[in-house]
Amino acid sequence: MRAQTLGLLWLACLSAFAPARAQDKVVEITTRPGVTQRFVVIPAADAKAAVVLFAGGHGGLQFNDAGSARWGNGNFMVRSARLFASQGLTVAIIDTPSDRQSAPYLTGFRQTPEHAADVKAVIAWMKDSTKLPVWLVGTSRGTQSVGAVATALRSGGGPDGIVLTSTILSDGRSKPVPDMAMDTLKVPVLVVHHEQDACRLCLFRDMPKLMEKLAANPRKELMTFRGGENQGDPCEAMAYHGYNGLEQDVVSRIAAWINTK
Asked: Which of 59, 179, 181, 242 shows its CA 20 to 30 Å from the CA of 148?
């Protein structure tokens, strides 16, 4: 029975964003010379804000022209995208740029000026198209994108706020989020974490360093969760790391925080 339930859960995840629905919009814009950036927009009725979602792992969603992802449908950000839209947030799910459409995708790229330039262009397009404040929301490795981009663009063209879920708190191969210049951010920062996250790069015991970096920020909060389902690799989407079984609660609380002025 447990195996059957897990199989059905994975089926739900795989169908959650494939194929894209009729009201979704596949957008591709030029971000750097000879480089384009594709993302899928999910509109929300009476939206108060827009969010750009960053998947974890290598980030190579590889959207086709219809907006179906070749990889990552089970990722917390991707499988929860419509939940964000249902909470009154216009959603953009960002793929890798055209020059990173093969391995290693965003690995080794998330903290580069080129990545910041790509995301800056997406933020500008979203602001122009929706006339809404734009937030960046990332999970796991996606938090390295969000942290790096937000700090790189703090002087202009950056997001109106950021949300970090299952943050990379320690890492021997790349800069973890607490080691970034998070203390320079003036925009709101929401940190979301599962207290039972067993991924060695995201252990809750390592959270104090990040929150200390955010101490002077005028609007920040640490939002924590416990329970849910814990299946498979502790660093993957069906473990506590990916808020398995808690998606609705996590997303609704994030949305409420974003929508609170």
From this structure: 242
